[in-house]
Design a protein that fits this description.
Blueprint lengths: L6 H5 L3 H14 L7 H12 L4 H11 L3 H10 L11 E6 L2 H19 L12 E6 L11 E3 L2 E3 L7 H6 L3
Helix pairs in contact: 2-3, 4-5
C-alpha cells in the first residue's frame, strides 16, 4: 500500500487525482473479484476510509453488486467507512494489558480526548481504537500511536505521550 500512496502525499491530492489513482489500481488488479480485498486496502490507503460512494465506484468498475463490496468492507475490521484522525491511538485490551491497567488507560484517553472508542476528534487529529494484542505482553500495558508502540504505560504518562502529537 505504501508504494501506491504515502499517507502525506494522498492527503494533498484532489478527489479527482485520488479517483484516477484508484482507477490505475483497478487496472493493475485487472478488475478481478478475487482481488477485491487488496483493491479495498489500496483504496483505503488512497482515501483514508471507504465511504459508500467510494464502495459504489469500486463495485461499478469491477462489475459487482454494491452489496458484495459493502459486505467485505463491513466484515473486516481493518476497513473503515468513517474518516480516521491523523494519529490513530490503539489501546491494547488483551489479557496481560487489561490486567495491568489497560482499561484505566482507555478511560483516561477517552477523558483527555473527549471521544469514545471508534470515534475521531473534531479536529481530525486523533482516532481511538481497541486491539486485543500487540505482542508486548511482557511490557504491558501498551498503546500504539500509528506505528509507534508505548510500553508500560500508565494514565499519568498519557498527557506527555499525546503532547508529542499536538
Amino acid at each position: 500500500m505504501s508504494s501506491v500512496c504515502e499517507t502525506s502525499s494522498c492527503r494533498e491530492m484532489s478527489e479527482k487525482e485520488k479517483y484516477a489513482l484508484l482507477d490505475e489500481v483497478l487496472t493493475d488488479y485487472e478488475h478481478k473479484e478475487s482481488n477485491l480485498i487488496q483493491i479495498l486496502h489500496m483504496a483505503q490507503a488512497i482515501f483514508g476510509f471507504l465511504p459508500r460512494e467510494l464502495q459504489s465506484f469500486i463495485a461499478e468498475r469491477m462489475d459487482l453488486p454494491v452489496s458484495k463490496v459493502g459486505g467485505v468492507v463491513t466484515f473486516y475490521s481493518f476497513f473503515s467507512t468513517k474518516p480516521k484522525g491523523e494519529y490513530i491511538i490503539r489501546v491494547c485490551l488483551g489479557t496481560a494489558c487489561y490486567v495491568r491497567g489497560g482499561k484505566k488507560i482507555m478511560e483516561k484517553l477517552k477523558e483527555l480526548m473527549g471521544i469514545e472508542v471508534g470515534e475521531t476528534s473534531e479536529d481530525m487529529k486523533f482516532s481511538l481504537e481497541v486491539v486485543r494484542c500487540m505482542g508486548a505482553c511482557g511490557l504491558a500495558p501498551a498503546i500504539r500511536v500509528n506505528d509507534k508502540v508505548y510500553k508500560r504505560v500508565n494514565p499519568n504518562k498519557l498527557q506527555q505521550i499525546l503532547k508529542q502529537y499536538k
